[in-house]
Amino acid sequence: MFKKILIANRGEIACRVIKTARKMGIKTVAIYSDADRQAMHVQMADEAVHIGPPPANQSYIVIDKVMEAIRETGAEAVHPGYGFLSENPKFAEALAAEGVAFIGPPVGAIQAMGDKITSKKIAQEADVSTVPGYMGLIEDAEDAVKISNEVGYPVMIKASAGGGGKGMRIAWNDDEAREGFQSSKNEAASSFGDDRIFIEKFVTQPRHIEIQVLADSHGNAIYLGERECSIQRRNQKVIEEAPSPFLDEATRTAMGEQAVSLAEAVGYTSAGTVEFIVDGDKNFYFLEMNTRLQVEHPVTELITGVDLVEQMIRVAAGEELSISQDDVKLNGWAIESRLYAEDPYRSFLPSIGRLTRYRPPEEATTESAIVRNDTGVYEGGEISMFYDPMIAKLCTWAPSRGEAIEAMRNALDGFEVEGIGHNLPFLSAVMDHPKFVSGEITTAFIEEEYPDGFNGVTLDRDSLQRIAASAAAMHRVAEIRRTRVSGRMDNHERKVGAEWVVSLQDEDFHVTIEADRDGSTVYFDDGRTHRVTSDWTPGQTLAVLMVDGTPLVLKAGKITGGFRIRSRGADLNVHIRTPRHAELAALMPEKEEADTSKLLLCPMPGLIVKLDVDVGDEVQEGQALCTVEAMKMENILRAERQGIVSKINAAAGDSLAVDDVIMEFE
């Protein structure tokens, strides 16, 4: 077994690999850029080597720099994590030339599966189900109609050199095939300078389901069940679970056996993933094979009890698999929520900055539930603009899917993150969405259910009453504390009132509180009653309460006359007033928001890459105004309407914060 391995990665996956290596008694080496000097993976590793400036193309993916770190530390093997160099055959070749083990597959497998056409051809030869289609030259529209009939409607007409949705049409009949062929061909020629078109079967009600495979160099290969990854946004997975709520045992077995056949066909060793698209009738088709460890591997570990990183290390060291296919048993249900530094209220734009508060729920393992949090950050650390925006992968396990969802709801409610925008509210909203709860999901879930983006959650009246009762009880505790610490002796005799008006989500609840030693009974004017108990004290940002014997977790921040309460994806300003104050508050005029219609505001923290207009230019709706770079992505900001640029407040190279004014219009 290896004595020392280097992790050619950063963040949560580097920390994840270090944990398993430590468990196996293997020393670890971290590499880091200038931006990661104080990163968690650097602190966790036994050794750490600096490899360059923050941009990944000057540090983490520079093979020569990584090789130098290996030589400097004497590492015997390298785990690449995912991303960066994990599927770079040149890196694997460089390691082999140096006599260093690659904790991953052979170079040939990386190359074969890294090319979409080659991988599909190999899959077909290995009798793996692939999407029916025609990859040859299509001469004209009538040829397209003929091929479409052979493939079977509906079909997807796609530009060979396509991307970003350009040169792509769905056809359900001959007329649409003719029209779609010509439109795709024209669009492809103008967008890519390449008008080649191919046709493949369009999969209806598509689900993204993948099979985890594990293979050694002694001819043993197995599959470890599947993962459902259909909840994704712009092809970025957001929530994964294992097993899939859709598959039956026969389909699972068929997919697993085909995945193993493909792994064997390319001489694959290590832990890899074969991805399939599955239609509403459980027909499945090969998409691609990821030869590296997947981001979502923890859910497979939770339902199988297999440490995939450990297996990768053992396979790379030449060991045989210690488990057979018959040993693989799927136990319970696991869900993973990806916590990203992105603002769901601003179209999920990246968010960077310092984590002024980072308090994940406590990790725990019992017979009835597991909470696991794979992370690479800590309170006080920074989320950099240079790397992937993932903060953590929160995972829960329970004996059933319903119990795993409930465990995830509670874990998300108890996850405190402040200082940056994040998608916790959105994750909570998905956990309560009827379609997700039922398991009736496709890859179009987010697009269909949130077509206008995420604007928070509107809670039902029962939920609002539970929160109102809790807030009233908390306010009473805070008022008692305030009278005792004010420093005025006469306040010691002041009684805290029993009648209050709780205002939230445009509703007013008139309540009366009867308190005793064990808690508070809150009476509503509609006749309903809630019993609230908690050990919450003023100043605590997380309130864990029992309402009528049922747990309720609230993130609670102080605002004037009440609390900012966040729960289950809702963000509420809750005001608690005396009846007289409530009457007066109703008479107060609402503050109007500032008019920003003539300003271009920076939607995210980022770097101005270029400006496309000058002062005095007349711009049209949709015209590019400037480009802002954040989290490895360039974002083009466009004019929302016609206008004339009157002032420019930023220049290329400037770093801006959210809502900084980039330019003004007449």
Give a structural overview:
A hairpin with a 2-residue loop joins strand 29 and strand 30 (550-559). The protein has 666 residues and is an alpha+beta fold. The longest helix has 25 residues, at 461-485. It is built from 17 helices and 40 strands. It is globular. The strands form nine sheets. It has a nine-stranded antiparallel beta sheet, with helices on both faces. An eight-stranded antiparallel beta barrel has the order 25-26-27-28-29-30-31-32. The protein has a five-stranded parallel beta sheet with strand order 3-2-1-4-5. The protein is 28% helix and 33% strand.
The quaternary state of the protein chains shown equals single chain
Structural class: alpha+beta
Radius of gyration: 28 Å
The helix fraction, in percent, is 25-40%
Going across the major beta sheet, what is the strand order?
14-13-10-11-12-15-23-21-20
Report the biggest beta sheet as strand number plus sense, adding barrel if it closes: 9 strands, antiparallel
Number of helices: 17
Shape verdict = globular
Distance between the termini: 70 Å
| Overall strand count | 40
Tell me, rounded to a whole number, the average pLDDT. 92
Q: Tell me the strand percentage band.
A: 25-35%
Low-confidence stretches: none
